Structure formats: structure tokens, C-alpha cells
Amino acid sequence: MYWTGPWLGVVLTDQWLRRRRLPDELLYDRSYRNRGGVIAFVVGIVVSVPLFSNQELFTGVVAKAVPSVGDITFLVGFAVAAVIYAGLFSRMSRSG
């Protein structure tokens, strides 16, 4: 379930950034690709899982060093993906 946090970070940030207009035209545009969303999603997973996961078979670096933190992979993945997507969204909207 580690993919859920970054995915929600991208989806909810996209909804928040587009709150003034509905992206109806994007729903039917087969050529539209949200590269920023994919990048933010992957980075959110790559950063959060190796650092903060705390499972029986694998324990992340931070979770191993500070066991009292626990497994906060969901929260970190959500935050990292949301921040990266917001930055990429503003950069892509300025360039395009």
C-alpha cells in the first residue's frame, strides 16, 4: 500500500491547483499526458519507501535509526509527491 500516499498527494494537489476550473477538456483529450504527475508519484515512492518503511522484511534507514518514529511512509510519500507535483505543475503551466 506504499503507492497510495504518493498517488493521493498527486491527485489531491492536482484538484487543489485546478480548483477554479474544471479540466473537462483533459478528460477527452487522448494526447494529454501528465508527466509531472508520474514524476512526482515515482519520486514520492523512491524517497519514502527506502527511508521510512518499517516492515518485517525491510526497515528503512530512518525507521531503523529512530524506531520510535514508526512507519510514516504514507505521510512522507504524500508530502513529497504533493510538493514536487505542485512545483512541476506551476513550471509546466508557465512553459505551456
Shape: elongated
Give the count of helical stretches.
Answer: 5
Question: pLDDT under 50 segments (min length 5)?
Answer: none
String of helices and strands: HHHHH
Rg, Å, rounded: 16 Å
What does this structure look like?
The longest helix has 23 residues. This protein has one domain. With 96 residues, the chain is mainly α. Helix 1 packs parallel to helix 5. The protein has 5 helices and no strands.
Secondary structure topology:
Blueprint: H1 4-17, H2 24-27, H3 35-52, H4 61-65, H5 73-95
List its traits.
single chain, 96 residues, mainly alpha, 5 helices, 67% helix, elongated
Quick recap:
Helix content is 67%, strand content 0%. With 96 residues, the chain is mostly helical. The longest helix has 23 residues, at 73-95.
